[in-house]
Amino acid sequence: MTGNDRRRGLSRREVIAGAPAVVLAAATLNGPGLAQAQVLGKKEIVIGGTLPQTGAFSAFGRYWVDAYKFWEAELNAKGGLLGSKVRMIIYDDQSDGSTAVSLYTKLITVDSADLLVSTFTIPVLAVMPIAEKYKMILVQGGTNATSIIDKGNYKYTFTTLTPDFAWADPLWDWLKTVPAEKRPKRAAFVQQVNPFMQGVVAGATPKAAAVGIEVVTTETYASDTQDFTAIMMKLKAAGVDLLFGAPNYPAGLSMIRTLAEVKYEPKLVYMAAGPTAPAWLKDLGAGTESVFTSTPYWPTLNTPGNQEVVKAMQVKFGYPPTRDSGQAYTPLQVLQTAVEATKTLDQDVLRSYIATHEFSTVSGVMKFGDHGYATAQNYLMQIQQGQQLIVYPASVKSADPVYPR
Description:
By secondary structure, the chain is α/β, with parallel strands linked by helices. Helices cover 43% and strands 17% of the residues. It has helices spanning 3-7, 12-17, 21-29, 34-40, 58-77, 97-109, 122-133, 146-152, 169-175, 195-210, 229-237, 249-261, 278-284, 306-317, 323-342, 347-356, and strands at 44-51, 85-92, 115-116, 138-140, 157-159, 186-192, 214-221, 242-246, 268-271, 292-295, 359-361, 364-366, 379-384, 387-392. Helix 10 (195-210) links the parallel strand 6 (186-192) and strand 7.
């Protein structure tokens, strides 16, 4: 499809429908069709996307950038994609949704990207409608905010993360293995005004009750809140022994520091985001000991091909893959598998294939169900003696959970 075709909003299928009959006939005689004939004759396949290389999410974006570079280099070293060299165009969306929208539009209409890759967090929610408008596949591991994704009813977006309402499921599944008399008795949820965080809490609240834990309160705070003294004093006075935090990164640090400041020691502390970041340990030190979290990926997993990727990335970048590395790499694996299996860049063919097949990734084996969400599971992680360790399920754990805190 040309840039002009995309600016008019035409799909590849519509462009092909208007092609001369003789071209279509020749393509049919050659087998899979015009799309594959075009792909096999391309010197390069252009893959476009954005990442937050500056701005609020840049501390995490650096790991996504490295994962994308690694995938591109490894793929080209093995002959590229369908025999064509891959050239990735990754712009800086500055952690801003409107900037991402402009850049993805440029990628499609000006740069004539053959395939799209995803940014993450808030900018992803902004670019999903762009991918939908131009009928281009967007396999993304950057957000799983069901309250927004479900409303969009997207046909071309696939999410490699488990839905937000199931994000904390490993915590509740593990607590079921703890004798009832030893479980926490009273829980409190502290959530940021954020579609992902609020979705996590909405899904977790009934599951706490299902394991016999009383939900005492749900505290909601503005995104720019940094002082949690009043909230933590309230929870301490209420005898809350399970603190379930759903904060962004800076607020999460403040929340954990406040526990020590007000001498509040709940039996169990869970944070929906934050503890998987390398900087979390450095910023908090011993203050984060025994804190739990969820993660969709970790370098210790014996998932398909993961250990080979871990070793290679360690050599290339000087650090083992992070959670963000895995979140970035997994969608690329799904996209690559679909293209290689179908031998085409036709977006509707790829969409159909992804929707109906199983994929082996470093995050695990997954399919895509309703609204394009993956069936992949999360893992329960805990900080122990300055290490981030998988503690549940038993089949992948590196240590037993430490409880009570």
